[in-house]
Amino acid sequence: MNKPVAGFSKLSKEEKINWIAKEYFSTPLEAITLLKNYWNSDEKIQKLHDEFIENTISNFYIPLGVAPNFLINGKYQTIPMAIEESSVVAAAAKSAKFWSTRGGFKATVINTEKIGQVHFLFKGDVSKLELFFAQTKAKFFSETKSITKNMQKRGGGILDIILKDKTDLLDNYFQLHATFETKDSMGANFINSCLEQFAKTLKQEAQSYELFTASEKELQVIMSILSNYVPNCIVRAEVSCPIEDLAEKHITNPQDFAERFVQAVQIAEVEPYRAVTHNKGIMNGIDAVVLATGNDFRAVEAGIHAYAAKSGHYSSLSHAKIENGIFKFWLEIPLALGTVGGLTSLHPLVKLSLEMLENPSAKELMQTVAVAGLAQNFAALRSLTTTGIQDGHMKMHLNNILNQFEANEDERILIQKHFKLNAVSHSAVVELIENLRK
Ligand code: MEV
């Protein structure tokens, strides 16, 4: 059995690696060599990555790809995507090209409000708490002045603070529910700093509030934290064209295709098992751009899935309809993104990705990300309702299987030629490799 380790974080990087190699690997030297092979030869770059997190031992590569030809609001973009799944970038690029000759994507930011809450317990007279809040509200603003000063210069700040009575859900539970505008930053640090100051002000002011009894003065702050649920920070992306314009190689009957497509979306609207996979396909596009641009994909994921369940029933994020001979396909999603602060000026590839997108504002990035999600969803539904998903997916995956078997150049040429005409499956590839090697 492995032993626990004391003071691990204080060890040097070399010592950490040696400990891990000795503790967990039968061939420690091989493990050490592998970890070091993934170090960057530029010491400055490596140091930067080492310091992003604690206990760094190496780097974990994910490919950075690009999907060109995205026509968004009349302007072409090449979208950077960091993702390991083989068919995602190809699908995005295909969708981009398809829609570039059919009017392109339109994207609109609907609103940009962020949310944070101070969660606290108050045992006492609610009407007194309400009066206290009304009389103290201005203090929450004045006592956060030093935090909000710079954000206000950029046009952002605290929008409002309200008191919420949540005692119908949990005994004695109240919130200070605050809304924020954080402009081009994601705003997590700004919001959390404001909230922690609200909590201090709340406790201090309660202590000296004359109308409160001794026990009411002891209201208890449980925690202060932003919410990753941002239903008022919404972006919409859409495409539309006359049905007959949908015609192309795999769409020989555009009317039939449009109807099947709309039906597929309706299934995802009503059936949660399908909705989760449908939305996963959307997230393939969204996460890849969010990651490449140094944003927090876990926050984005959590917020978007909560939004997908806002009716109390998990449903599709995208929608489609046919109206007067026009095919329309769109999505609306919550996205709290930043193009300044966080990793954006630290990670060299994030900087490069943002530069490739012509250094967008947070609103512009919201539009690009939403479009990447819609494009991905279109590509998936187009395949699903026509050729089936495995055709394209397995063609892309073929390379991974060939790498797994360390196929040489001659084998690759023969195998790729064979699978141009035949359906790719893992077992069919393995069988062919084995036959070739006999
Ligand atoms: C695979 O990563 C994503 C899909 O399953 C999405 C979908 O089914 O819509 C193809």
Automatic annotation (TrEMBL):
The keyword NAD applies. Keywords: NAD, Oxidoreductase. One of its GO terms (biological process) is coenzyme A metabolic process. Its EC number is 1.1.1.88. Pathway: Metabolic intermediate metabolism; (R)-mevalonate degradation; (S)-3-hydroxy-3-methylglutaryl-CoA from (R)-mevalonate: step 1/1. InterPro entries: HMG_CoA_Rdtase (IPR002202), HMG_CoA_Rdtase_bac-typ (IPR004553), HMG_CoA_Rdtase_cat_sf (IPR023074), HMG_CoA_Rdtase_CS (IPR023076), HMG_CoA_Rdtase_NAD(P)-bd_sf (IPR009023), HMG_CoA_Rdtase_sub-bd_dom_sf (IPR009029). Belongs to the HMG-CoA reductase family. The keyword Protease does not apply. It catalyses: (R)-mevalonate + 2 NAD(+) + CoA = (3S)-3-hydroxy-3-methylglutaryl-CoA + 2 NADH + 2 H(+). It comes from Flavobacterium granuli. This is 3-hydroxy-3-methylglutaryl coenzyme A reductase. The lineage of its organism: Bacteria, Pseudomonadati, Bacteroidota, Flavobacteriia, Flavobacteriales. It is an enzyme of class 1 (oxidoreductase). GO terms for molecular function: hydroxymethylglutaryl-CoA reductase (NADH) activity; hydroxymethylglutaryl-CoA reductase (NADPH) activity.
